[in-house]
Amino acid sequence: MYTEGSPEYRHQLATYGPLTRFGYKDFVPMFKAEHFDPHAWARLFYEAGAKYVVPVFEHHDGFAMYDSGLSDWTAVKMGPRRDVLGEPAKAVRAEGLHLGASSHRIEHDWFMENGRKLPSDVNDPLYAAHPRLKDGGENLGDDWAYVSPAFLRDWLARSAEIVQKYHPDLMWFDWWIGQPPVRPYLSRFAAYYYNESSRRGSVGVINYKKNAMRQGSGVLDIKRGQLSGISKFCWQTDTSVSNLSWGYIQHATFKTPEFIVHQLADIVSKNGNLLLNIGPRSDGTIPEQVQRVLLSVGAWLKINGEAIYGTRPWRTYGEGPTSVTGGSFHDTDTKPYTAHDFRFTSKGAALYAIELGCPNSGEAVIHSLGTAALIPGERVKSVELLGSTATITYEERADGLHLALPKMPPSPYAICFRILMSRTTEVSHPPTKRSF
Predict the structure, then answer these.
(1) CATH of 7-307, one of 2.170.120.12, 3.40.630.30, 3.20.20.80, 3.30.1250.10
(2) At what angle do helices 38-47 and 86-94 cross, to 10 degrees?
């Protein structure tokens, strides 16, 4: 809305008038969350199959959605006048889910800067924004954008305040923490958070992007993207149910349950987790279409969750004609999966083969389990189809394991086979344990 010439800018002027009279801050009284039910949210997330929930404690705008003692711009002191994160924090834990905290506070250092370039309320000293002096883009190591020590001390204090008040099992940070001036403060926070988590008996996870932290000192998060192969370090994708936005907008389009299930299977097969974003309305309700998508994914997980939860990668992540392009902002570039695409996970003695489609021929063929591909002495002991009582007959051939399928698949989008082998096999470099 502060970017001159943008659709949002034109809409803002046409709807609310000049930015000197009505700016971003003036939306706060319109944010009431009058229908917000944290227990209904928590129950929905549980039914969707989530294991951890990561509310946005503060976004780039600098408005704290939690009960902060370090700011007057909070949902407790204005707008809804309630702790709209403290309440769901208790509710999600009551459902047995882990609580995370997402903070974009560091980006507030520059986020409103376009408002300084034109007549707007951002030029009022009460609401002034800092300018971003330089942004090198992808390579944060070469970008020495100035971040004042005063702002960094404030960022550290606010991050520690979230830990002290809410004890999150996970802290999610956006990319600007990778700025060289920020890193000493990030190190101080990481030491504090990991020590506090350990003291409370929690593992403690920090999500970072790009090269903001040393590999293994936190968990890499890839925005709207995936990895092309198995990583020995656990990692995470964050993406949104909405194809157009991270928040609620009118006329949004949404990913299908099939798309999310296929993406989830691919991510988990490569030692990753999926953090799926939703955008609620300002009245505190979650759009019905989004709820239907989440519940459909949850229904699939009720049948096939054992092939996802607590699993580790197998010796290869999968097979088939469909592959993903690694990196950020590629998740919707993947072509539709077929019945020839499989993704593999493992747990104990069980190998899970997730078929990302239902073949019309009544037969599935897993080439990675053909006798020519197996380790010498390795054989298939048994095959079961999750969610089905049908006996799965199979034949081991050189070109693959041939499976006879029942006429009615037990679940849409993808079906999962539990396969027991005659000997235990492991990947040559076992991936690190995922926290959740």
Answers:
(1) 3.20.20.80
(2) 40
**CB-count burial class (<10 Å; 0-12, 13-18, 19+) for 179:** buried
Q: How confident is the model at residue 133 (pLDDT cuts 50, 70, 90)?
A: low
Q: Does the pLDDT of residue 81 top 50, yes or no?
A: yes
For the chain, what is the largest distance between any 2 Cα atoms, rounded to a whole number of angstroms?
77
Q: Is residue 391's pLDDT more than 70? A: yes
Strands (E), 39-179: 52-53, 56-58, 98-103, 170-173
CA pair distance 106, 58, nearest whole angstrom = 10
Quick one: CA torsion of 218, 223, 226, 231, rounded to 10 degrees? -10
What's the pLDDT score for residue 138?
55
Can you give the residue ranges of every domain in the chain?
A: 7-307, 312-421
Closest CA to 150 of 192, 181, 112, 114: 181
8 Å CB contact between 209 and 172: no
Give, in words, the CATH class of 312-421: mainly beta
Give me the count of residues in the chain: 436
pLDDT of residue 18: 97
Nearest C-alpha neighbor of 271 from the set 189, 321, 216, 322? 216
Across the chain, mean pLDDT equals 93
**Model pLDDT, residue 159:** 98
